[in-house]
From TrEMBL:
Pathway assignment: Carbohydrate metabolism; tricarboxylic acid cycle
Species per Swiss-Prot/TrEMBL record: Nonomuraea corallina
GO molecular function: succinate dehydrogenase (quinone) activity
2Fe-2S ferredoxin-type domain: residues covered: 4-97
Catalytic activity: a menaquinone + succinate = a menaquinol + fumarate
Protein family according to the UniProt entry: Belongs to the succinate dehydrogenase/fumarate reductase iron-sulfur protein family.
Listed InterPro entries: 2Fe-2S_ferredoxin-like_sf, 2Fe-2S_ferredoxin-type, 2Fe2S_fd_BS, 4Fe4S_Fe-S-bd, 4Fe4S_Fe_S_CS, Beta-grasp_dom_sf, Helical_ferredxn, SDH/FRD_Iron-Sulfur
Principal EC category: oxidoreductase
Cofactor: [2Fe-2S] cluster; [4Fe-4S] cluster; [3Fe-4S] cluster
Domain 4Fe-4S ferredoxin-type span(s) in chain numbering: 141-170
Alphabetical list of Pfam families matching this protein: Fer2_3 (PF13085), Fer4_8 (PF13183)
Name of the protein this chain belongs to: Fumarate reductase iron-sulfur subunit
UniProt keywords, alphabetically: 2Fe-2S, 3Fe-4S, 4Fe-4S, Iron, Iron-sulfur, Metal-binding, Oxidoreductase, Tricarboxylic acid cycle
Keyword 4Fe-4S: yes
Amino acid sequence: MTEESIRLEVARYRPGQDEEPVLVPYEVPLRPDWAVLDGLAYVKDRLDGTLSFRWSCRMGICGSCGMTVNGEPRLTCGTFLTEYGTGPVRVEPLKGFPVIRDLVVDIEDFLAKLSSVRPWLVREGEEPPLTTEYAQTPAQLDAYKQYSMCVNCMLCYSACPVYVLDPDFLGPAAIALAQRYNLDSRDMDDRFDVLGHEDAVWGCTFVGECTNACPKHVDPAEAIQRYKLTAALRSVLPWSRR
Ligand code: SF4
Ligand code: FES
């Protein structure tokens, strides 16, 4: 019996060779336990070794395999080929980011945005690295735990219509990361200087697609709306925090 196959239509863009991305079809085995990432690995191993894409853990932890699959931002290691029936399955780079080659996008701007929110514990009168141990109750951990589950996969940016139109928008994951620290009982900052302006929380129009796209249930849309309340209070009561 011959093995069933499914067609992947993979966006190829080779700088210096292609004017613009083109979709190239590849037939790959349709196996029940194969994710889209397995199909891409098959292409690279058996059909065309020049195909470029990022991946590492193959288990939804590293966040590096995000791509656009049939128009939606997805982690390709957690998206099974069988979801797409008999196919074809279109695989493109994450929307909203410059393409370096094939399915690989430039993440520099995203990393700079994450760094800009001071993603570490800020303590008045103490300089990092902190050496003191600060106890925390389970309830205090619960206050920010959800926001600490982010794997930096950038799917929320790719799903966000504001970010796609305005690359200066600080964006969902960076704001959720800021809230991960703002809501930590050990932290003394509120990051208002970074979060409280129009390219940050006030740029969000609450479409909510970031939360729909997030594979780790971080709920960045909620993080943004919660901080809007903080920022509004901060404007009328400058001494208030969080
Ligand atoms: S908030 Fe969710 S979608 Fe956005 S980068 Fe983090 S894990 Fe990915
Ligand atoms: S390969 Fe690590 S999240 Fe998919």
